[in-house]
Design brief:
With 276 residues, the chain is of the alpha/beta class. It has six helices and 14 strands. Helices cover 25% and strands 27% of the residues. The structure holds the ligand NC(=O)CCC(=O)C(=O)O. It holds the Pfam family CN_hydrolase.
Length: 276
């Protein structure tokens, strides 16, 4: 089974309308290039800053959600609509990824589970938990091509989550993301390749384009790592569309030849209370 993926590495504007117009223009271009699945970055219509999340937050089924759903339906594509700051009825705000099918039906929703709270000496500081709440669900969803997993940026650093999605049957893991100029050069490619090779999946990271004038500077480098752990495609830091043809038969082939998932020793992966 094959499909064509288009990743839109896009600028994020202060005005939601400008981000939305850009996204719609690029999505139409990607669809004209034959894309079956279009992926957007984390916070594609909200400059990534803790103070912005409450200001840009919208309820599920709000205007941005509707625009994404309509874009998927109009272009007859699957749309992984990056992430949106989601205000839930209790007033909490989540960093939430939505996926729509070719008819515009919502088929996937993931609330970021691991909040990005880091302080690297001389480098990036960030505290998502200042304004966001954490989700607690592992997310997979089905398409005409097979089962996909979905998580958000920092979530993908946790091997347990990638493994759970693979065990739930994911062959592709979509990761709307926004690494930065400290951790991007150090860990971005390494993380995607290691998750791809350990779980024998296609790992797809889609990031905003770099804007040096922003508070948080995105590393860019939207990437596809294949089940062998090779980089199938990777962008630089500039805005653009990356198109990759994905052959899911490669997942089964690698898993058969190198049966890592079958060879797990789940009988011994338990820490003994007073053990060594
Ligand atoms: N938006 C994020 O979760 C950023 C994650 C990140 O940069 C990392 O190093 O992890």
């Amino acid at each position: 089974m094959k499909f064509r993926l288009a990743q839109i590495q896009m600028p994020v504007y202060k005005e939601i309308r400008l981000s939305v117009e850009y996204m719609e223009r690029m999505a139409a271009r990607a669809a004209a290039m034959g894309a079956d699945v279009i992926a957007l970055p984390e916070m594609f219509a909200c400059p990534y800053a803790v103070g912005n999340f409450p200001v840009y937050a919208q309820e599920e089924r709000g205007p941005l959600w509707q625009t994404c759903r309509e874009t998927a339906r109009r272009l007859h594509v699957y749309l992984s609509a990056g992430t949106i700051p989601e205000r839930d009825p209790s007033g909490k705000i989540y960093n939430t990824a939505y996926v729509f099918d070719r008819q515009g039906n919502p088929i996937g929703k993931h609330r970021k589970m691991h909040l990005f709270d880091i302080a690297v000496e001389g480098g990036q500081h960030f505290q998502e938990s200042a304004t966001l709440s954490a989700g607690d669900q592992v997310t997979v969803f089905d398409t005409e091509f097979g089962r996909f997993g979905l998580c958000i940026c920092y979530d993908f650093r946790f091997p347990e989550l990638g493994r759970l999605m693979a065990l739930e049957g994911a062959q592709v893991i979509l990761v709307p993301a926004a690494f930065n100029m400290t951790t991007g050069p150090a860990h971005w490619e390494l993380m995607f390749r290691s998750q791809a090779v350990n779980n024998q999946v296609f790992a797809v990271g889609t990031a905003p384009a770099r804007d040096e004038s922003g508070d948080y500077v995105s590393w860019g480098h939207s990437i596809v790592a294949d089940p062998w752990g090779s980089v199938a495609a990777q962008m630089d830091e500039k805005a653009g569309i990356q198109v990759t043809d994905i052959d899911l038969d490669k997942v089964a082939a690698v898993r058969e030849q190198l049966p890592l998932l079958k060879h797990r020793r789940t009988d011994i992966y338990v820490l003994k209370k007073n053990g060594f």
